Known about the structure:
Largest sheet: 5 strands, antiparallel
Strand order of the largest sheet: 2-1-5-4-3
Number of strands: 5
CATH topology: Beta-Lactamase
Oligomer: single chain
Amino acid sequence: MESGLDAIPNFERKIPSQETLESICEIILDLDPDIRFAGVINNKGRLLTGHTKKGIRAFTTQIDQEMLLMETALGVRMRKEHNSHLGPVIFTISYGSKIISINFPLDDEILCVSAEKKINLMTVPFLILKFLEANLGKKDVS
């Protein structure tokens, strides 16, 4: 099965370019039909780039989405306080009544993915990790 995990040029840079961030989102959005959204935010929760799958109905307003992304960034920053004791967080999953959110802390950004509840949580997050490791050098230290 073709995974769509081809390498993206110029990923060796420490700070990914806007073009690179957009490529990340586009590839991840195509990894699984149940992925609704893939976006990258900065450590303050500002959306740097994001793509929603065509035909997807949003559950939130733009203002609510901005608040959710700020909360996500705050949660990631707060969890880093425990890295010395528990090790760094590789990703988090929030299982809601309507969607699933999967967040991957990167160096200075956060990859945010939302998906339908029927997504395979045993394979898709690890497929995304494999892609990030191959293209951004993010290591799965589990």
